Amino acid sequence: MSTVIIPAIDIRDGRVVRLQQGDYARQTTYAAEPVAQALAYAQAGAEWLHLVDLDAARLGGFSLAALVAGIKRSSALKLQAGGGVRTHEQLTAMFAAGVDRAVIGTLALTDKPAVRGWLAEFGPERVTLAFDVKRDAEGRWRCASHGWTELSAEGLDDILAEYRDAGLCHVLCTDIARDGLLGGYNLELYAHLRARWPTLQVQASGGVAGLDDIRAVKALGVPGAILGRALLEGRFTLQEAMAC
């Protein structure tokens, strides 16, 4: 199985930014204009782009409709986007704007009946569930929510079992201890997910620093790899990532 390389752009106040471990006070702002950055990735060969609406993640709503429209007008990129999806209306607005796959995070923990219903209504190819995880003292992966201040009572595997029965296909999983720190993917986490859930289309995210990190998740057979800060800071090119 090949690994799809997915460049990521986080947007706040119309700017391309990155947060360290999800902390809004630890933000790096980049000079790149969002549409121009997206088009650069498209020209480098990207098929998918991952967009994070940090304003919506904090305040609700969906603020990237104009950006999505601009990217769609100028490229053939498929867009996976998320950030603060809380209602059916927000989800339909994202799809109407041109988002190909919507990312749902906290609500996948707090309102499972609604999310299961959306999987049935829109189909498993239109929805990615995102889980930010942390290992507890017993060695079990648990999901964080509400700005990573709370951990779910259920383990990640229990939650995935519920959604797999509802048709879940795409899962984005981030070890919060690695996010934005360039420490490399948590290979133990993704090896576990590949072994326990081989049919899920797992996307690795958080901490990639170099090409060896990408080679490692490819060796595990992880279907997708999200690349953010390392690309923005020029640690390697998208072409190098896709070819390694």
UniProtKB/TrEMBL annotation:
Its primary localisation, in coarse terms, equals: cytoplasm
Alphabetical list of CDD domains matching this protein: HisA (cd04732)
Q: Could you tell me where this protein is found in the cell?
A: Cytoplasm
Q: What is its EC number?
A: 5.3.1.16
- GO MF entries: 1-(5-phosphoribosyl)-5-[(5-phosphoribosylamino)methylideneamino]imidazole-4-carboxamide isomerase activity
Q: What is this protein called?
A: 1-(5-phosphoribosyl)-5-[(5-phosphoribosylamino)methylideneamino] imidazole-4-carboxamide isomerase
Q: Which GO terms describe its cellular component?
A: cytoplasm
Q: Where is the active site?
A: D10, D132
The record's family statement is: Belongs to the HisA/HisF family.
Q: Which GO terms describe its biological process?
A: L-histidine biosynthetic process; L-tryptophan biosynthetic process
Give the matching InterPro entries: Aldolase_TIM, His_biosynth, HisA/PriA, Isoase_HisA-like, RibuloseP-bd_barrel
The pathway to which it is assigned is: Amino-acid biosynthesis; L-histidine biosynthesis; L-histidine from 5-phospho-alpha-D-ribose 1-diphosphate: step 4/9
Question: What Pfam family does this protein match (any one)?
Answer: His_biosynth
Species whose genome carries this gene: Arenimonas maotaiensis
Keywords attached to this Swiss-Prot or TrEMBL record, sorted alphabetically, are: Amino-acid biosynthesis, Cytoplasm, Histidine biosynthesis, Isomerase
- Signal peptide positions (record): none
Per its record, the protein catalyses: 1-(5-phospho-beta-D-ribosyl)-5-[(5-phospho-beta-D-ribosylamino)methylideneamino]imidazole-4-carboxamide = 5-[(5-phospho-1-deoxy-D-ribulos-1-ylimino)methylamino]-1-(5-phospho-beta-D-ribosyl)imidazole-4-carboxamide
Primary enzyme class: isomerase
